[in-house]
Amino acid sequence: MSxxxxxxxxxxxxxxxxxxxxxxxxxxxxxxxxxxxxxDHLAEPExxxxxxxxxxxxxxxxxxEARARAxxxxxxxxxxxxxxxxxVTAFVLTPETRVGPQEMTLTxxxxxxxxxxxxTRAAAADLEAAALAAEADAIRLELVTEVRVQLxxxxxxxxxxxxxxxxRDHFAQHEQIARARYATGSGPGQGVIQLQxxxxxxxxxxxxxxxxRLVLRAEINALxxxxxxxxxxxxxxxxxxxxxxxxxxxxxxxxxxxxxxRAARRRxxxxxxxxxLAGLARRPDFMVGVTYTLxxxxxxxxxxxxxxxxxxxxxxxxxxxxxxxxxxxxxAAGIEEAAAAGQQSEEERRVLAARLERDVSExxxxxxxxWRQLGLIREVLVVQAQEALDSATSGYVAGALNALDLLDxxxxxxxxxxxxxxxxxxxxxxxxxxxxxxxxxxxxxxxxETL
Length: 451
Fold this sequence. Notes:
By secondary structure, the protein is of the alpha+beta class. It has helices spanning 3-17, 21-25, 36-40, 45-57, 59-72, 74-78, 115-184, 189-223, 247-257, 259-279, 301-305, 328-398, 403-438, 447-450, and strands spanning 85-90, 96-97, 100-112, 285-295, 315-323.
């Protein structure tokens, strides 16, 4: 199916079934995020629409984005000067001075922390916001991988259900032939019973597949915050050949591209900023202020008879204070705490890097193996099983073989077809997981980066 026709089909399904219609009307939620390269290389419009809807509606993504947006507002708060303080003192019993009674004092003061403390706090807040934004990208990447894997598993279940239904139809046809032979006395009744038992077994497997289908649909719909029975697209993903993979080079790409490692690096830088801030506790903070005292004129008898110079003049005063960092134990403890937090961040980065290296190396080794297994099953096992079934069918029609022999031959063929479906799914799942581990699509990698 061509891409324009495929896209047209997707739109028709949207209009008919209500699937992700809003996604086509709005820009993708993660257009500028770490998952954008993977989204750009999704060939199926239905899959792209579903992934866009998951990223737009998933509560985990929404919560992570809200945390990142909230953190972006911390830097303007912590780098600002503290609010100035204003005070009023009204004298109930006015103190008498030479130039008159003091009636009221107005004060205004401003705290002035050591300048580098404000900028360092702001730098730490900016780094925390960057870390949270990277963590939101990591959640998006995780969800893209998860929904791709779940859809592949759903496509496998749908395909397996078709295979089992085909098995049942074949067994039902043979059961009718066996009953007809038994009725005419040309065949044993045991074959009828065995075929009926085989049909019952297939019916049981079909019910299990229906149950698995419902679970997968509910899980996928939960990712996009919709009801469990909401419609999903039917996908037939292509099975491209694997590129030649160099695990060491892929690990390097993953270490550079993964958003969770980027978040870990921002947290290490934040710990360095907090360590610098703890060291700045040795620096003093200041307070400057101004006082203005309202003075009344003297109304006592000497003041009225001989007013003093400056009678009733108000008083203006300036003040400055210094917070002396005297308690060295507190400062040392703060520096030690910041150093321990930095070590924690570094160790967490190492854990993430080691896990990523393990996953990428394992998946890079699995993909060619899965591809060879798929080729072996598809090109050898299925062909042999088909030849065996053709031979058994001829023998059954000629009366040389019984229904049980034909049943065994058909079981082998259908098992081989199911094995092909499973091998293709395992191969595509490994590719999707590797792209999720890399944060990059395999199709976009330069050959020099994979050879």
